[in-house]
Design brief:
The longest helix is centred in the middle third of the chain and has 38 residues. Helix 3 packs antiparallel against helix 4. By secondary structure, the chain is mainly alpha-helical. The chain is elongated.
Length: 138
């Protein structure tokens, strides 16, 4: 189950990180594009509406992937019992970000933060050579 938990954690955090980064880049591009418009107010409104539609439809699959990633990460945390230190840090960061997405994100973010606080002592730093095979000395 530990390997499944690790796989779920990697996919969950990876999906969320990629989608959040992509969303940030799309938002920056849209702001820069709309900031460079030099036209009449009617034309600006028309172009703004057009770009808003593009952004909404471009971000819908990303929002779905973000939610799937969050669910995978929660499954890894609760049922996979994955306890790597990097995963704890990632879950703290993502939980805080999810708090800003009401109503479901706020509930899931609070649930994850409460879980992380209650199970703080279960997360330990893995030894440097945890995956190495034991060797016989002498």
């Amino acid at each position: 189950m530990k390997n499944q938990g690790k796989c779920l954690a990697i996919w969950g955090v990876g999906l969320q990180t990629a989608i959040l980064t992509g969303s940030l880049l799309v938002t920056i591009a849209a702001i820069r594009l709309l900031g460079n418009l030099e036209a009449t107010s009617v034309e600006i409104e028309r172009k703004t509406a057009f770009y808003e539609n593009i952004l909404v439809y471009a971000m819908l699959p990303g929002a779905l992937a973000l939610f799937v990633g969050w669910i995978l990460a929660l499954i890894a945390l609760h049922y996979g019992r994955y306890r790597a230190l990097w995963f704890k840090k990632a879950m703290w960061i993502l939980s805080i970000i999810w708090l800003l997405n009401p109503p479901i994100g706020t509930l899931l973010g609070l649930k994850a933060i409460i879980y992380l606080v209650r199970h703080e002592n279960e997360f330990v730093k893995a030894p440097a050579y945890a995956d190495a095979a034991p060797t016989k000395l002498g």
